[in-house]
C-alpha cells in the first residue's frame, strides 16, 4: 500500500541511498579495529627502531622477529576460524583475540631488553590477531550483501587505517612527554587503548548466526574446504602474493636511511602510508566491486614492485619519501580488504570464518619466509640487491596469480 503512493523516482532514490550504506555492524567492527590499530601501530611504529638501533639486532635477526610478528602464530588463525564457525560465536572468539593482544602489550614491558622475551610477547600479540581476524572478517561478510563486499571491507579498512594513522602520532606524543627512550610508556598506553577496544566490541558489535546447524560444521567439512570450487586456487594465490611482501619495518628502515631522515621522525613514516591507505581504501573497494576485485588487487601489487624499485633509484630525500609512502599506501588500500572481499564470494557461508582464516594463514606463513629471506639477502648481498630481487619476485607473482585468478573465476562461474 505504501509503495503504491510513492513515485518510482523516489523509490529509486531511497534504494540508491541504501546501496551506498554499510551496516551498523560493519561500522561497529570498524570502530573496534580503529581503536585496536591505534594501540598496535603505536608499538609497530617504534619496534624496528627499538630492536635494530636500541638492541643492535642484525638484519637477519630483525627479519626473524618481524616474520614472527605476523607468521609464527598463523595456525591459530585456523583454530579461531574453525571454533567461530563451529560454535557460531564469532564475536566471542574475536573478543578473546582482542583481549589477548591487549595483555601482550604488558608482556612487552615485562620483557625488558631480552630479545627472547620480546619475541614471546610478540607471539602472544600475534596469537590474538590470529584468533580475531577470521571471525571478524566473517562477521563483515555475514552483515553485507554479496555485491557490496568490496565497499564494506573498504569502509572497515578505512577505519582500520585511521587507527594506523593515529597510532604513530600517539607514540611520538608519548615519547615526547616521557622521553625519547621511554618505550615502556608507549607499551603501557598501548595496553590501555587496546583494553578500551575490547569494551567497544562487547557493547556495540552484534553476532551474526546464519541458519546453519552447528553439526554441519565439523572437522571433516573443514578439511574438505580445499575441495570447494575455487578455494584451493585462492589459497595458492594468496600464499604466493604473501611470499613477496617483505614487511613495513624493512621498507621504513631503508627509507629512513635513503631519505636522510632523523631517528625522531621515524615513527611518522607509518603515518604517511596510513594516510594514503585511509583516503583510498573505500574508493578502491568500490572500484573493485565494479571492475573486478582481482584486477584492483594485482594493481596494488604492481605499486609494491615500484616501492622496492624506488628504494634503489637515484631519488633521495623528501621526493623519495613521498613517492614510497604514496605507493605503499596504494598497495595496502588495493589489497588488504579487497582480498577478503574476493574470498567472501568464493567461500561457503557455513565455513566463512574458517576459510578466511585459511587464506590469512597461507599469507602469514609465506610472510614469515619472506621476512627471513629478505633479512638474509640484505645481510649477505646488501639492501640494494635484496630490493631488486624482491621487485622481480613481485612481477613474477603478479603474472602467475593473474593466471590462477582467471582459472578460479571460471571454476566459480561453472
From TrEMBL:
<keyword id="KW-0472">Membrane</keyword>
<feature type="transmembrane region" description="Helical">
    <location>
        <begin position="185"/>
        <end position="205"/>
    </location>
</feature>
<keyword id="KW-0812">Transmembrane</keyword>
<feature type="transmembrane region" description="Helical">
    <location>
        <begin position="234"/>
        <end position="253"/>
    </location>
</feature>
<feature type="transmembrane region" description="Helical">
    <location>
        <begin position="298"/>
        <end position="315"/>
    </location>
</feature>
<dbReference type="Pfam" id="PF07690">
    <property type="entry name" value="MFS_1"/>
</dbReference>
<feature type="transmembrane region" description="Helical">
    <location>
        <begin position="321"/>
        <end position="343"/>
    </location>
</feature>
<feature type="domain" description="Major facilitator superfamily (MFS) profile">
    <location>
        <begin position="25"/>
        <end position="409"/>
    </location>
</feature>
<feature type="transmembrane region" description="Helical">
    <location>
        <begin position="59"/>
        <end position="80"/>
    </location>
</feature>
<keyword id="KW-1133">Transmembrane helix</keyword>
<feature type="transmembrane region" description="Helical">
    <location>
        <begin position="26"/>
        <end position="53"/>
    </location>
</feature>
<protein>
    <submittedName>
        <fullName>Sugar phosphate permease</fullName>
    </submittedName>
</protein>
<dbReference type="InterPro" id="IPR020846">
    <property type="entry name" value="MFS_dom"/>
</dbReference>
<feature type="transmembrane region" description="Helical">
    <location>
        <begin position="388"/>
        <end position="408"/>
    </location>
</feature>
<dbReference type="InterPro" id="IPR011701">
    <property type="entry name" value="MFS"/>
</dbReference>
<dbReference type="InterPro" id="IPR036259">
    <property type="entry name" value="MFS_trans_sf"/>
</dbReference>
<feature type="transmembrane region" description="Helical">
    <location>
        <begin position="265"/>
        <end position="286"/>
    </location>
</feature>
<feature type="transmembrane region" description="Helical">
    <location>
        <begin position="364"/>
        <end position="382"/>
    </location>
</feature>
<feature type="transmembrane region" description="Helical">
    <location>
        <begin position="161"/>
        <end position="179"/>
    </location>
</feature>
Amino acid at each position: 500500500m505504501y509503495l503504491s503512493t510513492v513515485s518510482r523516482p523516489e523509490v529509486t532514490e531511497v534504494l540508491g541511498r541504501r546501496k551506498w550504506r554499510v551496516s551498523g555492524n560493519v561500522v561497529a567492527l570498524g570502530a573496534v579495529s580503529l581503536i585496536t590499530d591505534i594501540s598496535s601501530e603505536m608499538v609497530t611504529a617504534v619496534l624496528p627502531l627499538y630492536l635494530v638501533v636500541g638492541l643492535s639486532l642484525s638484519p637477519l635477526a630483525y627479519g626473524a622477529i618481524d616474520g614472527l610478528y605476523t607468521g609464527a602464530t598463523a595456525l591459530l588463525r585456523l583454530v579461531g576460524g574453525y571454533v567461530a564457525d563451529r560454535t557460531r560465536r564469532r564475536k566471542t572468539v574475536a573478543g578473546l583475540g582482542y583481549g589477548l593482544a591487549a595483555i601482550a602489550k604488558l608482556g612487552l614491558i615485562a620483557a625488558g631488553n631480552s630479545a627472547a622475551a620480546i619475541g614471546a610477547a610478540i607471539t602472544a600479540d600475534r596469537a590474538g590477531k590470529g584468533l580475531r581476524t577470521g571471525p571478524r572478517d566473517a562477521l563483515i561478510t555475514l552483515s553485507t550483501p554479496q555485491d557490496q563486499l568490496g565497499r564494506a571491507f573498504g569502509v572497515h579498512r578505512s577505519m582500520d587505517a585511521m587507527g594506523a594513522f593515529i597510532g604513530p602520532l600517539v607514540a611520538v606524543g608519548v615519547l615526547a612527554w616521557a622521553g625519547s627512550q621511554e618505550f615502556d610508556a608507549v607499551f603501557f598506553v598501548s595496553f590501555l587503548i587496546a583494553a578500551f577496544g575490547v569494551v567497544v566490541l562487547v557493547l556495540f558489535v552484534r553476532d551474526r548466526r546464519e541458519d546453519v546447524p552447528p553439526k554441519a560444521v565439523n572437522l571433516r567439512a573443514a578439511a574438505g574446504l580445499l575441495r570447494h570450487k575455487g578455494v584451493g586456487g585462492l589459497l595458492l594465490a594468496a600464499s604466493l602474493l604473501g611470499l613477496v611482501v617483505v614487511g613495513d619495518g624493512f621498507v621504513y628502515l631503508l627509507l629512513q636511511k635513503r631519505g636522510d631522515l632523523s631517528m625522531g621522525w621515524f615513527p611518522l613514516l607509518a603515518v604517511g602510508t596510513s594516510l594514503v591507505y585511509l583516503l583510498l581504501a573505500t574508493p578502491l573497494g568500490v572500484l573493485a566491486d565494479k571492475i573486478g576485485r582481482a584486477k584492483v588487487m594485482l594493481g596494488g601489487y604492481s605499486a609494491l614492485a615500484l616501492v622496492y624499485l624506488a628504494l634503489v633509484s637515484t631519488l633521495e630525500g623528501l621526493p623519495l619519501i613521498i613517492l614510497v609512502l604514496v605507493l605503499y599506501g596504494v598497495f595496502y588500500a588495493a589489497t588488504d580488504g579487497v582480498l577478503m572481499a574476493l574470498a567472501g564470494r568464493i567461500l561457503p557461508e557455513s565455513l566463512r570464518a574458517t576459510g578466511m582464516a585459511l587464506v590469512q594463514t597461507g599469507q602469514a606463513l609465506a610472510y614469515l619466509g619472506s621476512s627471513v629471506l629478505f633479512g638474509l639477502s640484505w645481510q649477505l648481498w646488501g639492501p640494494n640487491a635484496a630490493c631488486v630481487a624482491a621487485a622481480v619476485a613481485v612481477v613474477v607473482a603478479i603474472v602467475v596469480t593473474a593466471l590462477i585468478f582467471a582459472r578460479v573465476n571460471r571454476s566459480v562461474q561453472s
